[in-house]
């Protein structure tokens, strides 16, 4: 049973409530929801951003620390070299070395004095000793001293001596940087979680509203409307569902009107047949009236049979298994056969039926039986509305047999009351003219022209209706020709 709707304002669409049913059997898995996936994606992006930042920041931090330590040690080496090269008056070099060693030891810097004629310390690499002996300054990337990466800055101080400053590199810089990034990672994940939840809620709200609207549409509620809100894709979905609701409501209204008119058409011959059958059963009809009663009952039975046949044909036309027997045949033969079959009925009603065959043989490729059915529908419609003394013309317009190499036109003109512009807009809709003119003029079942339009469409052609010159109506069929070899 459909869930009742609750209006929240006058002339406003109904509120979209949250669906109460869980959906598929077994309920939804939270991990498969849009919220969970959006949160997972946002958190993954935040975590990946922090990791990429760490991968870039740690090497930069290590190199920056090394560069700063090297620059500081180089400045200290320059100062020590200047002090040893020109000591203050009366100051012994060894005393100065001891004092500088004590001052720099607190900063993690070791001072070595390499004098000419004495052996260099064993932990100094040979390359460094050789360059110092040659009077060159030593500076650059860290080297391993006693198994540890160490910064080495050497400066000549004159008379063949040199001073060397050693400072082991700090270890754990990368770990320290990584430790500081944990806070950023946690903050990024928290922000991603909050942003993901808010974004998922914003994105899933129109989808949930659309899903609930679809459930109510399936339950038969044609008053449901989906709120139109951004983003653009959600607006398009809302417009599509609202248009679908309007189209379904319009279609169902037309179907109800059509069924009402059809039920009236079915009830009329059935009432007549029932009345005469009861009269015969009660013995009211005598032998003198039996023939007339039989003719009336036969006419009503034929009318009922024609109505049922039209309904079945229309139902089959809309089915997917509707078949056509397409063949190549001469159009003039079909037109002539139709006129020969309908001429007695037209003559009986005092209406003239003429045929205008094509001025040259025209071969069309279509289903001749279905084409004849369309022509019969149009002729029956014309015979119903044309008064006695009128004329109905069937044929191919002069000069149009070879005007279009792909299609040929067949027209049915009548001298009837014709149609208004409003009629022409709905002329091929089921029951449209039947509802308009029932009680004013002779009308059929209300499905003949709709059936003709459907058949012509299935045949690959086109049918139009318009105003005939001099009054009346004209129907034009465009039929595909046989392809040229």
In short:
With 485 residues, the chain is of the alpha+beta class. The chain is built from eleven helices and eleven strands.
Give a written overview of the molecule.
This protein is of the alpha+beta class. The protein contains eleven helices and eleven strands. It has a five-stranded mixed beta sheet with strand order 6-8-9-11-10. Strands 1-4-3-2 form a four-stranded antiparallel beta sheet. Strand 10 (462-467) and strand 11 (473-480) form a beta hairpin. Helix 6 (287-317) packs parallel to helix 11. The longest helix has 52 residues, at 34-85. It is rod-shaped. The two termini are 61 Å apart. Mean pLDDT is 76; it is low at 1-27.
Protein topology:
Layout: H1 34-85, H2 93-105, E1 110-114, H3 126-133, E2 143-145, E3 148-158, E4 161-168, H4 173-218, H5 232-282, H6 287-317, E5 327-330, H7 331-348, E6 352-356, E7 363-366, H8 368-385, E8 391-395, E9 407-414, H9 421-426, H10 432-437, H11 448-458, E10 462-467, E11 473-480
Parallel strand pairs: 6-8
Antiparallel strand pairs: 1-4, 2-3, 3-4, 5-7, 8-9, 9-11, 10-11
Helix pairs in contact: 1-4, 4-5, 5-6, 6-11, 7-8, 8-11
Uncertain runs are 1-27
H and E string? HHEHEEEHHHEHEEHEEHHHEE
Q: Give the helix/strand class.
A: alpha+beta
Extended strand count: 11
The radius of gyration is 50 Å
């Amino acid at each position: 049973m459909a869930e009742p709707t609750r209006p929240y304002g006058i002339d406003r669409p109904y509120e979209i409530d949250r669906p109460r049913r869980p959906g598929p059997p077994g309920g939804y898995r939270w991990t498969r929801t849009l919220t969970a996936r959006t949160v997972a994606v946002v958190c993954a992006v935040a975590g990946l951003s922090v990791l990429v930042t760490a991968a870039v920041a740690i090497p930069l931090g290590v190199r920056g620390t090394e560069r700063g330590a090297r620059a500081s040690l180089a400045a200290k080496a320059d100062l020590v070299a200047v002090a040893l090269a020109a000591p203050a008056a009366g100051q012994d070099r060894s005393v100065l070395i001891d004092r500088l060693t004590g001052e720099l030891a607190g900063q993690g810097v070791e001072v070595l004095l390499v004098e000419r004629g004495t052996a260099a310390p064993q932990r100094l690499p040979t390359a460094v000793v050789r360059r110092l002996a040659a009077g060159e300054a030593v500076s650059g990337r860290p080297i391993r001293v006693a198994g540890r990466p160490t910064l080495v800055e050497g400066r000549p101080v004159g008379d063949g001596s040199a001073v060397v400053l050693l400072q082991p590199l700090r270890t754990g810089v990368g770990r320290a940087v990584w430790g500081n990034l944990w806070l950023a990672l946690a903050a990024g994940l928290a922000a991603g979680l909050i942003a993901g939840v808010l974004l998922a809620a914003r994105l899933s709200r129109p989808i949930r509203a659309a899903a609930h609207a679809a459930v109510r549409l399936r339950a038969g509620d044609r008053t449901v409307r989906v709120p139109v809100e951004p983003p653009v894709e959600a607006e398009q979905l809302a417009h599509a569902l609202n248009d679908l609701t309007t189209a379904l409501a319009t279609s169902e209204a037309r179907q109800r009107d059509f069924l009402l008119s059809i039920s009236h058409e079915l009830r009329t011959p059935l009432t007549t047949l029932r009345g005469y059958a009861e009269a015969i059963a009660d013995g009211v009809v005598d032998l003198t009236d039996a023939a007339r009663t039989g003719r009336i009952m036969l006419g009503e039975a034929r009318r009922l049979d024609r109505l049922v046949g039209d309904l079945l044909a229309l139902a089959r036309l809309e089915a997917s298994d509707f078949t056509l027997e397409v063949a190549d045949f001469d159009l003039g033969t079909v037109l002539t056969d139709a006129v020969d079959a309908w001429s007695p009925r037209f003559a009986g009603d005092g209406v003239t039926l003429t045929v205008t065959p094509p001025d040259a043989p025209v071969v069309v490729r279509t289903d001749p039986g279905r084409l004849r059915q369309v022509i019969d529908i149009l002729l029956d419609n014309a015979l119903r509305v044309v008064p006695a003394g009128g004329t109905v013309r069937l044929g191919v317009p002069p000069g149009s047999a070879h005007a279009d190499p792909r299609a040929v036109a067949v027209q049915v003109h009548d001298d009837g009351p014709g149609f208004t512009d409003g009629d022409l807009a709905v002329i091929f809709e089921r029951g449209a003219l039947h509802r308009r003119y029932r009680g004013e003029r002779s009308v059929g079942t209300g499905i003949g022209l709709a059936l003709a339009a459907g058949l012509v469409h299935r045949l690959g052609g086109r049918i139009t209706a318009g105003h005939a010159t001099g009054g009346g109506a004209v129907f034009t069929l465009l039929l595909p020709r046989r392809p040229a070899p």
